[in-house]
Structures are given as C-alpha cells and as structure tokens.
Amino acid sequence: MPIQYYIYLSLALFSIGIVGVLVRRNAIIVFMCIELMLNAVNLLLLAFSKMHYNTALLTNKETTAGTEGQLFVFFIMVVAAAEVSVGLAIIVMMYRNIHSVDVNFLNRLKN
Amino acid sequence: MIPLSLILLPFVAGILSFFVKSDNGSKQLALFFSIATLAVMLLGLCVFNQSAYHHFDVSWLVSLGSRFTIGLDGMGKMLCLLTAISFPIIIAATYNNKYKSTNNFYALLLLTQAGLMGVFVAMDGLLFYFFWELALIPVYFLCSQWGGEKRIAVTFKFFIYTFIGSLLMLVGLLFLYYKTPQHSFAIKDLYNLHLAASEQNFAFWLFFIAFAIKMPIFPFHTWQPDAYEQSPTAVTMVLSGIMVKMGIFAVLRWLIPIFPDAAAKYGQLIIILSIIGIVYASLIAIKQDDVKRLIAYSSIAHIGLMCAAIFTMNSIGLKGVMLQMFSHGVNVIGLWIIADAIEQQLGTRKFSELGGLAQKAPTLAILLVVLAFANIALPLTNAFIGEFLMFNGLFQYNVYFAAIAGVGIILAAVYTLNMVQKVLYGNTTTITENAVEISGNVKWMLAIITIMIIVFGVYPQPMIDLTKDTVQALIK
Amino acid sequence: MNKLVYLVPLFPLIGFLINGLGRKSLSKSLIGIIGSAAILASFVVSVFLFIDVKAHGASVVTAFNFINIDTFKIGFAFQVDQLSSLFLLIITGIGFLIHVYSTAYMHEEKSEHFARYFAYLNLFVFSMLLLVLGANYVIMFIGWEGVGLCSYLLIGFWFKNNNYNYAAKKAFVMNRIGDLGFLLAVFWLIAKLGTVNYADVFAAANILSKFDVTAITLLLFVGAMGKSAQIPLYTWLPDAMAGPTPVSALIHAATMVTAGIYMIARSNVLYSMSEVTMNLVAIIGLATALLSATIAIKQNDIKKVLAYSTVSQLGYMFLGLGVGAYTGAVFHVMTHAFFKALLFLGAGSVIHAMHHEQDIRNMGGLKKKLPITHATFLLGCIAIAGIPPFSGFFSKDEILAAAYAHNPIYWGLGVAGAAMTAFYMFRLYATTFLGTFRGTHDQEHHLHESPKAMTIPLIILSILSVLGGLVGIPEILGGHHELHQYLSKVLISEKAHHIEHSTEYMLMAISVAIAALAVIFAIVHFSKKPELKDATGIAKAMENKWYIDELYDAVIVRPLEAVAVFLKNIIEKSGIDAFVNGVGKFVNYSSRQLRLVQSGQVGNCILIMVLSIVIFILLWFYDISIIRLVDKFF
C-alpha cells in the first residue's frame, strides 16, 4: 500500500483530534481527542518506519533501519498511559468538585 | 571631594529623613542639610578651588566599562551653585506648608537634590543616566502623592513623557558605548569618538528628544503647564528652577561635543522650533487666567530662547545661556514663592478672583514687581545680562531670527505686567479683602532672591568668568 | 574732578533707597527733604562738571567692567562732555524744582505713599542720569529701559484705578517696542564693529556700509519713536497723564521723552551718514508735530492739551534733527524743558486749586484767584507760542530756518504747526484763566493760590522760560549763539545752512506774525465764549484723537488677542495636547482590545496555540517566497 494512504489517514485522525479539542467542552471527549492525535502520530511513525525498513532491505539484508520509529511509538504509548491516569484523576476530581466535566468552567487562568 | 559631598550630603539626609518620625524634625533636618550642602558648595568655590578638589574617580561597574567619575567644570559649578542655593530657599520659603507624612516628602525632596547634583557633576555616560533617572523618580512620587486634584493623570503624563525621552537616550548611550574602541562610557572617550555623519544624525535625535522633552521646547512642552499646576509648589520650584536646566545642561555637555556635525546640521531647525516656541508660549501666556500656568508658559518662552542661543554656537551667546540658566532658576523660584504665598493664603490662583493686593500686602507687591521686571529682563536685573548676550548670539547667527525672538520680549512685558496688574492693582475682591502681609520666612527668602537679582544684574562678571572654561571647550 | 561723575547718579540712588526702604518710618517732611536734597546735590555736582567741561573738555571714566567676554568688553563707564553736561543740568535742575513742587502737591497722600512717590521720582532721575551719562550704548540702554520702568511705576502711581494701570502698561509696552529696535541696533553695532563705546563707534563709523548705517540708525530711531512719542508710537504719552501732575512735568520736560533727542544728537555722526534715515526722521517729526497739534486744538482736559503739545514740540525737535540742525534740536529740548515744566506745574497748580478738576470747560476766570499761577502760565504760553524774545522763539526759529534751508515745504508746514501751537495754547489759556468762572459754587469757594513750595518753582521756571533763549541768539540778531559753540565739539556733524540774511529776516517775521495772529484770535475768540458744547464732524474726530487708539486696538491688539486665544484653545488644547493625549488613549484602547484575547478559556488558549503553530509552519515552508515578496515591496 502506498505510503500516502497512511499519511492521509493519520492527517484525518489528527485533524479530527484537533477540532475535537477545540470545539468540544466535555473534558472526557477532549481527552479522547488528545488520544486520537497521539495515535495519529503513532500511526504515521509506524508507517514511515516500515517504509524506511523496506527501502533499506533492498541494499542490506541485515538492516535494522526504522526500528527507532517503533521505539518512539512505545514511548508515546507509555506517556499516553501516564497521561490518561493523571488526566482521568483530574477529571474525576473536577467532577467531584463541580459536578461537571465542562472545560469552560476551568477558567481560573483568566484571573 | 567637593562633588562627592554635594551628592552624598543630600542623599544621606534623604535616607535619614525617612526614619525621622516628627514633622518638625524632618523639616529641620532637610533645612540643615541643604544649608550644609550650600556651605560645601561655597567652600568649593572660594576656598578649595584647586582642581584636585573638584574631581573624584573610583571604579564602579567595571564589567560595563563605567567608572564613578565625577567632576566640576565651570558650567557644573554654576548649576551646582544654583541647586545648592535653591534648595534652602525652597525649603525655607515653604516651611509653613503642611504636608501629610512630612518626613517622606522631605526625604524625596532631598533625594531629588542628590540626583540633580549627580547629573551636573557626572563625567561618565552611564553615571549620568543613573542620576538623570534618580532625579526623576522622587519627583514622580512627590507629584503623585502630594499634588493637586488631577495629580495622577498629570504626573503619569509627565512621567511617560520624560521616560520615553530617557529610554531613547539610553538607546543612544548604548550605541555610543559600542562605538567606543574599548567599550567605555567615560566622557573623554565619548568626546573622542569620531562618528560618521549618518550615525551622528541618527543618534543626535535619540539624545536631543530626551533633552528637548526635559527643557521643554516646542512642541514637546505640553506636560509642563499641567505638571507645574498640579505639583506641590515646592516641587514645582525644583522642576522649573533646576530640573528644566538639566535639559539645557545636557545639550551642552553631552550632545554638542559628541555630535558636533549633527548639531551644526540640525541647529537651524532647532533654533526655528525654539523661536516658534518663544512667540507661541508668550502669546498663550497673555491669555492665561492662572498665576501658575502663566509662569509656566513664560518659562517655556525663556527656555526657548536659551535653546536657540545654544545652537548658534557663538561664544557670547553661550555665555549668556550659562548665565541665564542660573538667573532664570533664581527668578522663577522667586515667582513660584509668590504664587505659593498667594495660594496658601487666599486659596486661589485665578486672576479673576485676585486684585488689590498692593493695598493689603505692600511688601509682597514690591517683591513681586521686582521679580516681574526681572522676568522681563529689565536692565540691572540678572536676567538682562543673560538675555542681552543670548540675543546678541542669535543676532550674529541670523538677524531675522533675533528680530522675531525679540517679539517675545515685548510680549513678555505684556503678560508679566498683566499678571502684576491683575494680582496687585485695582480694587480688592471679596477674596483679597482680608489678605495680610506675607510671613517672615517668605519675605526673607524673597529678599535674598531680590538681592541676587540686583547684584548679579549690576556686576555679572564673576558669573561670566565662572563658565569661561566650558565655553572655550565648546567653541573649540 | 573726574570721580565726581559717580556722585551725580549716586545721590538720587541713595535718595531712592532711603525713601524706599524707610517709607514706613520716615516723616513726610523728612521724605520730601531727602528726595529733593538728593537731586539738589546732583545738580550742584552737575554745575561743577559743567564748569569743568567748559574749561577742560570731555572725559570718560569707567567704574568697572560690566560685561567682559574675550575681546568683547562693555564697561560701566560714564562720559561727561558738552552734550551730557548740558543734559545733566536740565535733568537735575528741573528735576529738583519738580521735587520741591511735589512736596506740596502730593501732601494729601499718606506718608507711606508719599515716600513711595519720592522714591520713584528719585529712581526716575537716576535712570535718566544713567541714560545721559553712559559712555556706551549699553549703559544708555540701561537708563533707557530704566525710565520706562519708572514711568510705568509713576503713571500707575494711584494703582487702585485700573484705567491708570492700563495707561501705565500701555506706556511700558509701547516703550518696549521701541526698545527692541534700540537693542537690535546695538547688536548690529556689535556685529559690525565689535564695540558699543561712543568714541570707538564714531571713530570706526566710516567702515560701515551704507546699508548698515541706514539699518542701525533706523533701528535706533525706532527706539526714539517709542521713548520720544513719535508716530506711530506716540499714543502712550497722552495717556500717561494718569500719573500725578508733577510726574507729567518730569516725563515731559526733564526726562524720558527727551531721551530720543539726546540719543540721536549723540549719534549724530551715524545719522549724518544716512540720508534715508535723516529724511525719515524729518518727515516723521513733521507729521507728528502737525497731527498732534490738530488733536491738541480740540482737547478739553488741561493736561491732555499740554500732552499733545509736548508730542508736537518733540516733532519739531525731530524735524530739527532730521534736517541736520542738531544744536537747534538740543536747544529746543532745553527751552522746551523750561516752559513745558512751567506749564505742567502751572496746570498742576490749577488742578490743585480746583480739587482735581481737569476739564477746562469747568474753569474760567481763574486770573484773579490764582495770580501767580496765571502770570507764570501766561509767560509759559508766550514762550511756547514762539513770540520773541521769549525762549521758545529762538529755538523754534533755529529749527525752522534749518528746515527752510533743507526744503521750504518743511518750513511752510512747520510754521502752520507753530500757528496751531500758538492757537491751542492760548485757547487753553483763555478758557482757563479768562472769562467767568464756570465751576460749581463749592469749587469757587475753595479756590486758592497754591503754597510757596509750588509757586516758587513756577517763578523760577518762568524766569528761565523768558530768558532761556538768550544762550542761543543767532548771529543775524547780533548774538554769538553760545550754545552752538559749546556743543560744536560733540555735534560735529551739524549741517551748516546758508540762507540770505534778508530771507532769514523775512522767514522770522512771517512765523512771528502768524503766531501772533493765532494768539490774538484765540484770546479774542475764547475769552468771551469758550467752547462748551461737544464737537461734531471733523472736530469730533480731532477731539477723539483721529481715532488712532481705536485703530491700533482694531488692527493690532484685538487680532493679537484673537491669535492668542486661537493658540491657547485650538492649537494647544485640541492640537498638540490632544495629539499627545491621543497617543496615550490609543495605547490604552488597543491594550483594552487586546486584553479580550486573554479570555482565560482553555479552548481559546488552545485555538491560539494551534493557529500560531499553523502560521509558523506556513512561514517555515514558504520562507523564501516571503523574503522575495518583502524585497519586492521595499
């Protein structure tokens, strides 16, 4: 499959994520959109890593090119997991305090 | 050592004054230290007049290439003398005025004096800038804390105006700093800079706008009448008596020697601006209804003449400028003292509400008349000598300029005599009906000013000789 | 002997200081004595100086260096020569008589104001002495402005009355306009010659170009116009009548207005070098003489008539200067000082007797009640009318003869003016002293001759008015003109004029005959039925001084005030200040608008973040084409 398809897909996912973060006010959905963006990046990393590997294979049978990309994906997944745990905790605390998960209530920065 | 003590005495006294609890204590402290400063100044002029006593140099911000270099030359002596004489007079003449938190008021006033002295003795660019700001900041607080009704807005305007100027000057100063071969702020190195014409033209304006705002010359003057009107009178005296001289002083010390070519190039433009300012301010002064605003506009006209005379770069004219800086300082302080005495007693400064004071307070009347005639530069008053020399310089530069500026001396007679007439003559009004004679301290301070006016008007030679070295250096 | 010079101005200065500082403690009689004695002492010294100059010639003494810059030196120097010593005598002599007179005239004042009055008077004399004694133009200028100051103080002496204050201010400002001209002339001299000393200037005068000389003399003449009340700067002098009457006498006779004549006579070397200026001086002088004479004809205030007559006589003096008859002008200054002081003091005596009534329509028939005043006033009138052998005849005739030699038209107009002078003076005399009394009953009851302190100066002055002309009897009448000989060393540019003796006799006869006719006509006409009604038509214009004051008001004062209001309200407030405040307001406004961006909404923050990232990425991608675009535009 040509690399373009992967790129288009991840671009779409990323844009959906951005728009979701910008327009939705529900903290959970915003959160999910952030995850979506992260996963769009992951997808892109994987696609390029595979492409890179395949190109390198043509000249060298023993190559390990492209593995760094997959390594990054793991990192991102770990960070995302940590983020989810902290973020969900914040959302839960927020819900306990103000009985809402609407991010517009979080406007303390203004003052 | 003399210049150092001129700065340190008021500075230390200012710091001390913050901690004095009693009102009278801080007043006495301020008066004592200002007289002590005057004594040091006089000692420096008469007894310790060897050059060794007049220079002081220690290392200061070495990494920045700045040294704590201070010294007194002729012009510095003249202006330090003005500062040293003015402060005791100002403090004594307003001794009976009541201020809230008196100690802070006098502390800030003394800090201003320290800053002013520093400006006049600084021989290092960065040091000069430091003192320039040091003099400004206490004045800002004095105006905004103790001023009139509109003080906040007016002081803000004043501060922004002068601060913009200061920042431009700082930029210019840094520019010069990087131009010096060994990166230094020392005045000697700056004087020895030989800048290209384009560099001069650009840096000249950075400095000149700062100084023009301070003087102020047309059209940078609009902060002044408001600031004079709203400040407590003691501060107004400092502002108009001494602080505006900072602008002229700085032009003579920092602008013309460093940018001689640009000064010659833009000189005519600045002279024209100044002359417009003279006529403009004089005309506006004719229509003022407020003693303080009238004096403010009259002051703008006088400063305009000084600024014009500077850029003629004529040795007679420059002598006149130096002399006039002193004379104008003394005279205008006298006028403010009168304005303050009237306002403190009658609660108004409006001409329409005054009148007939000559019947009620003859001493005040006599002193005001003397000061008024000094203000219009009648011969045998100190202002005449300065104006005569300055006009002479202007005349040598351009006949028509002198003639147009001369209209200012006619208009000066019109507005000053207007003021005299409306305040002193005619019948008393309901407000002036119960006026009484001015108090003793005011009377004595005005008497001292009157004596200075006459003495320097009849025998100006010592003052002329005082600035000989500076003028020679400038002309060269 | 030289050092005596210092004493001349010193005495009045001391008198000023004593009376000024001790005004609250000194008694009235003491004040009067100090004030008068100071001038008397000066007069005595002046007499010595006069004798000394006559014997040994001129001298210059320098008190100290006034201004000394490199090569530019102005000394506080006094010059006593023939011209200045003559003026010293006039100033101190007549000044002394006026002081004595004032002790009685001002006696009703409170002692504080009495002292103030004498202090000002002494200061006035001091300034005038400085003016005359100065050995350079700067010292002259000091006195020049000093007399302006003193006239301001004295005209506004009764400061409760605002009209008087306006008159005082007007006098000072008009003088200042002239002073500016004087000052510019001084600068011109400094620029071209580097000195202001008379001796040096006159010695080097021939290196000046024609243009320079003309400019300098014209500018100096502007100064003289202001001080000596010539067209167009004469309107202050009649208004100066607001001051006490002896002050008017001092201003008109001994000090102040003669300064212009003195200055031009002093600078005769320069003036004679410029024909343009000389002609202008003569024309302005003649025009002033005629214009003010027409105004004087219709005035009803006793002092105003005299004031306009002074302006007119000053015009004659300038005519004399303009045609090169410097001696004649100085001679007329001297005789005019005698009879004008006499007339003013006489008028003062009348006003004193009439309890401050000045309108001659309410007088009449004062001859019997005030015999001494009447007799002396009559002598003064004859002298000013130019009837021989009174003093005015000789001096006026000398000027007219020189004018004839220069241009017969000048002479014709001059004689016309002289006829008017004779007419209005005797109109004044007849209306005041002849006929029947027209004042109130109360005034009539209180009519009295003035005290001795006032009448004795009148008598002395009347003697001088009668005999004063004898120092200048022209040759054709068998005299030697001693004044001419005495002054010839100073007035070296005096133009000798040659007229046939027969012509000169004829001119003299014509002018005397016309003046005499005018006198007779006036006496006959006005002693029986004085003008009491308000004038109409052209006479009304004359009574209102040809509306010159109104003209100045409309052409100069009002437009200037309008400009001032315009500058104050429009340019300053809505222009410059509004611009400055506008900058502040703009910053304020824009920051208020920008603040809305910082709403604190998380969404907004992120939106801006994203947008910025997008913009940065775009910039990064297209950096080269953006640079090209910028290059294209600039």
Essential attributes:
heterotrimer; A: 111 residues; Helix Hairpins; 3 helices; elongated; C: 634 residues; mainly alpha; two-stranded antiparallel ribbon; 2 strands
Low-confidence stretches of chain B are none
- Beta percentage of chain C is under 5%
What is the CA-atom radius of gyration of chain B, in angstroms?
A: 21 Å
**What's the tally of helices of chain B?**
20
Biggest β-sheet strands, sense, barrel of chain B: 2 strands, antiparallel
Textual characterization of the structure:
The complex is a heterotrimer of chains A (111), B (476) and C (634). With 111 residues, chain A is mainly alpha-helical. Chain A is 76% helix and 0% strand. In chain A, helix 1 runs antiparallel to helix 2 and helix 2 packs antiparallel against helix 3. Chain B has 476 residues and is an all-alpha fold. Chain B folds into two domains: 258 residues, no CATH class; 203 residues, no CATH class. The two termini of chain B are 29 Å apart. The mean pLDDT of chain C is 87. Chain C is mainly α. Among the domains of chain C are: 270 residues, no CATH class; 38 residues. Classes of the chains: A mainly alpha (111), B mainly alpha (476), C mainly alpha (634). At the B-C interface, helix 6, helix 11, helix 13, helix 15 and helix 16 of B face strand 1, helix 5, helix 6 and helix 24 of C.
